[in-house]
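Something for you to look into today, if you have time. Could you write out one complete protein record for me, on any chain you like? The space below this message is yours for that.
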Amino acid sequence: MDISFYETTDVFRDPIHGLIKVYPWEKALIETPEFQRLRRIHQLSMTNLIYHGAEHTRFGHSIGVMHIAGRIIDHLRNFSPLRELSEEEFMQKKALVRMAGLLHDLGHGCYSHVGEENKIYPDLIDPSNGQTTRGHEVYTRCIIKERLANIIENFWPDSEYHMVPHILMILNQSSDDPTYRFFDDIISGQLDCDKMDYLLRDSHYCGVEYGVYDLDKLIGSLRVHSINNNNVLAISQNGIQAVEAFVLARYWMFIQVYFHKYRRLFDYYLSAFTKEFLTIECEKSGQYPKDLENYLKMDDFLLYEKIKDYATKQQPTVDEKKICYFAQRLYHRFHHKAVFDPPYVHYDSRNKDGNEDYKRLTYVKKQLEIYLKTINSTEQEKIYIDLATGSSTKQFFDIKIYNEEQDPDYSPILQDIQIPAIPVVSKHDGKVEAIQKYSFTLKSISDKKISILRIYAEDDMIETMRKKCTEWFSKEYDSKIEEREKISYQVEQQRKELESAERRLFELNNELG
């Protein structure tokens, strides 16, 4: 193939990565209406209502992910298996991974992740495996398969390399070649280029330092290692501190930005508004359109116009009162106030190991549930409970085992085999261990859910709810703990007295024959 085919043809000036060069096929994809739509999809929903600089979009993020994916592939060219490839074979692999990174967010709905927990995504047939699933990810794969495949295939004919099916498999985390299993990890894993970009980008636009880490050192520490006959992404021993900084950056961004108490609240308003809008208008199904043409017409601009319309509606009908309620809060930035915001960040409702923090928060929840039953529905609507959850870092992952035969009807299955989520390759003997063995910092937060319980109330309920939550959380709970300890002491004393009496009775029975 003509070497000029591999030359970059355009440049994007990016605030995070500087000048980003693109190849002809990437430019063709970026110029499509499907990709340009990402300019109208905010990266962080309505976080700009909290951090006013957070106006960035999925467009810049997607180009940044593509750029980092290319940097990672260029770096891994120094190691097997990429080291053994010819220049043309390597460029095919590089193009594959860069395009997967470029297109990975193509199917996002309005304001990105908002509404994903509100069942607004319909069931679709996944073109990567024929199974029924839902979410923005399957929209991404459908858009690539049905609307962008021709562009990709014009540059990379299927007779030469089956680029489109490989992109879909990477995006579905189901690559069928164990030699290049690490491509999945590059796009979506513990050390993927998606996180590498959004942490730096979100920090920059939010004006915070929480997500800053050493990108150059992290990329330079990446390696490919074979575990259970699958090549996976690993790091060298010298990169442990870079990974620590990266994982902690993500942890801090969740605590300080993504799970900010009022960002969560506006996400709730926006999610509820979107659900109502899709019920009242559009296809009146309460879900996004299944038809891709209609789905792609929906973006933040359209939804915000609807928010404005309903927020300023003079005489809403009975059916419109609910959607107007949420629209007014979004448009005028009028919101509930947090009346209960405890400092615990690892509250986990599944954890019943006697943890005192868990019990204290559970007590507050129980008392609130009892209280809500004593008030009318109008007052109940003035109170909102939120449990923000996410993961810190895992210690082990299940690994996919692949059939070595190229059976088109074969689908990967999960086996009872585990690999370290972040494998570290020792520089002395090449042995692989989970990073938690080397890092006390990461070991302390591994496999722990970030879980933050908050209670909100409208203005006329703030003082009432704040007093009640404080009473339940501190005075009342402490009083019950004190009472429990007192009764436990009394029970223990009575038990000892009973045991003493039983021993004396036994002795008397023996003495009396």
User: Anything to note?
Assistant: The longest strand covers residues 383-391.
